[in-house]
Specification:
The protein has about 170 residues and is of the alpha+beta class. The protein is about 40% helix and about 20% strand. The chain has a domain at about 25-135. It is built from seven helices and four strands; from the N terminus they run H-E-H-E-E-H-E-H-H-H-H. A four-stranded mixed sheet has the order 1-2-3-4. The longest helix has 22 residues, at about 45-65. The protein is elongated.
């Protein structure tokens, strides 16, 4: 009779576990969207459109599945075949229910305007490149200075006559 009780106890314990509600697992949803730029559309309008699209996508993501606890949205811009990320948003359901102001969680990418071709970077001339690196820009005269032609010799001209002078 002792074995029967053990078997019965095991069966009852197993069935109560099967009937116990399972804890819900946190579900994260990732949404990746591409937004095509209209011809002659300024970047500010594209950025605003991306923000609105991300907000609607987050709302829809939480509405579609009550088990979703977090939504991540990434919006990539497409302009003339050039692609660059405009924004990414990662928000939990609790955060969204407290405030659906997307700007609290949105990360806008700094160089998107340039990467999509809305702005053209300034071409670096040798003087700009040197100052951008923090270096000193040197300019070399293409013709002799008036001092040399008046009988003064430059340091280079004095060294050219020495045996150890190298011009490389």
């Amino acid at each position: 009779m002792g074995i029967r009780r053990q078997i019965l106890a095991t069966v009852l314990a197993g069935s109560s576990l099967a009937l116990a509600p399972m804890p819900t697992l946190a579900q994260a949803k990732t949404i990746n969207l591409t937004l095509e730029s209209e011809a002659f559309q300024p970047f500010s309008a594209l950025k605003q459109e991306a923000t609105t699209l991300a907000q609607k996508s987050i709302e829809q993501g939480f509405r579609q599945d009550s088990q979703t606890t977090e939504v991540t949205v990434t919006i990539v811009g497409d302009r003339n075949g050039q692609f660059a990320p405009i924004l990414t948003v990662k928000v939990t359901r609790d955060q969204w229910q407290k405030s659906n102001n997307i700007n609290q969680w949105a990360r806008f990418f700094d160089n998107t305007e340039i990467l999509l071709g809305f702005l053209t970077p300034i071409a670096a001339t040798p003087a700009h490149a040197a100052s951008a690196r923090g270096g000193i820009s040197q300019t070399f005269p293409t013709q002799r200075s008036p001092l040399i032609s008046q009988g003064f010799t430059s340091h280079r001209e004095r060294l050219e006559g020495t045996p150890g002078f190298r011009d490389d």
